[in-house]
Specification:
Mean pLDDT: 82
Low-confidence stretches: none
Order of helices and strands: HHH
Largest sheet: none
Length: 106
């Protein structure tokens, strides 16, 4: 039984049920199930989501360091000063979006 059939069955059950104090709890449960199934129809399936691109860093040298922090605090500028690489730095957030491998002291 698919989601659409379940929604139709719950709607039929709601229409058949008399509305009074004794059936309020049952109707509330049915409405909650109905809302859950309708939300499942609207959201995309989790298995069909696109995966982000990853990257691999070869193990070499003595240590590996990652600069992680808030946007616009000078991580790219620090990387450019410590290494011979040129990392893009601008006055807006999220300028550097990729991994920039570099070696200190060259």
């Amino acid at each position: 039984m698919g989601i659409l059939e379940k929604i139709a069955e719950i709607e039929r059950e709601i229409s058949r049920t008399q509305k009074n104090k004794a059936t309020e709890y049952h109707l509330g449960l049915l409405k909650a199930k109905l809302a859950k199934y309708r939300a499942q129809l609207l959201e995309p399936s989790k298995s069909a989501g696109a995966k982000g691109e990853g990257f691999d860093v070869m193990k070499s040298g003595d240590a590996r360091v990652a600069l992680i922090g808030f946007p616009s605090v000078g991580k790219s500028t620090f990387l450019s000063l410590m290494t011979s690489t040129e990392s893009e730095a601008a006055s807006y957030e999220f300028t550097t979006l990729t991994c920039i491998p570099a070696i200190v002291g060259e």
